[in-house]
């Protein structure tokens, strides 16, 4: 089974079957997204991704298993996410990119896809000027009835991949991961992967040396 992540594109966005495929929770203010049907939301989502790609650059990673999308992360400067202003722990720090949404198909839960996506995000963000951290508005506990749980990433997952609480709140803390932590974590992951590949490629048993003929064989 082949697993990898690739940058988010409009074609891959269209192929995603995630609930946030047509969700504008982060991308538009409540008044702007109210009353839009699913088709209008999908078009608006595509327009948003196109705008961020054009003005800022790569803004997401998509996890592929045997070439099929099974999950994704979306991130961008807070200026592209007006929905973030509604959180009691806003605003996002000026030196941070905002991790907006993350989703993995239920059948791949617990398979490491989330960590693979975070590793891809690290690869994308390392070296970009002015970015010192990634922040995210997290949710704790069970989401309230009627809420869309996939709009806000669980605090438990963020803590597992290295985020720490930056501004506490009982329901929606703002969490942060420093870029130096991302670099270290990425390096450790890649080093571990190289060790695994090396073990797989290394022959189990070295071939026995061929016997050498005597220089002066007896007759």
SSE map:
Elements (H helix, E strand, L loop, with lengths): L2 E5 L2 H6 L14 H4 L4 H18 L4 E6 L2 E9 L19 E9 L8 H13 L7 E7 L13 E2 H6 L3 E4 L6 E5 H23 L18
Helix pairs in contact: 4-6
Give your account of this protein's structure.
There is one protein chain. With 219 residues, the chain is of the alpha+beta class. It has a single domain (3-200), classed as 3-Layer(aba) Sandwich (Aminopeptidase). Helix content is 32%, strand content 21%. The chain has helices at 10-15, 30-33, 38-55, 113-125, 155-160, 179-201; strands at residues 3-7, 60-65, 68-76, 96-104, 133-139, 153-154, 164-167, 174-178. Strands 1, 2, 3, 4, 5, 6, 7 and 8 form an 8-stranded mixed beta sheet that branches. The longest helix has 23 residues, at 179-201. The protein is globular and about 35 Å long. The N and C termini lie far apart (59 Å). The model is unreliable at 213-219 (pLDDT under 50).
Helical fraction: 25-40%
For the record, the CATH architecture stands as 3-Layer(aba) Sandwich
CATH class: Alpha Beta
**Model regions low in confidence, pLDDT < 50 over at least 5 residues:** 213-219
Please count the helical segments: 6
**Main structural class:** alpha+beta
Mind summarizing the main beta sheet? Answer: 8 strands, mixed
Shape: globular
The average pLDDT value, as a whole number, equals: 83
- CA gyration radius, whole angstroms: 23 Å
Give me the strand/helix succession: EHHHEEEHEEHEEH
* CATH topology annotation: Aminopeptidase
Number of domains: 1
């Amino acid at each position: 089974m082949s697993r990898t992540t690739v940058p988010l594109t409009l074609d891959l966005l269209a192929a995603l079957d995630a609930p946030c495929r047509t969700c504008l929770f982060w991308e538009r203010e409540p008044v702007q997204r109210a009353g839009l049907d699913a088709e209008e939301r999908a078009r608006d989502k595509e327009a948003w991704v196109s705008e961020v790609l054009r003005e800022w650059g790569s803004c997401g990673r998509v996890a592929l298993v045997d070439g099929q999308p099974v999950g994704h992360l979306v991130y961008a400067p807070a200026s592209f996410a007006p929905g973030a202003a509604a959180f009691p722990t806003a605003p996002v720090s000026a030196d941070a990119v905002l991790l907006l949404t993350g989703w993995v198909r239920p059948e791949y839960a617990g398979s490491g896809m989330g960590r693979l996506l975070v590793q891809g995000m690290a690869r994308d963000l390392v070296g970009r000027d002015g970015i010192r951290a990634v922040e995210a508005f997290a949710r704790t506990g069970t989401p309230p009835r009627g809420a869309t749980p996939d709009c806000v990433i669980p605090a438990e997952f963020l803590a597992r991949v290295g985020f720490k609480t930056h501004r506490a709140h009982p329901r929606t803390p703002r969490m942060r991961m420093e870029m130096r932590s991302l670099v270290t974590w990425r390096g450790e992951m890649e080093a571990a992967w190289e060790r695994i590949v090396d073990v797989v490629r290394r022959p189990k048993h070295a071939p026995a040396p061929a016997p050498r003929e005597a220089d002066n064989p007896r007759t």
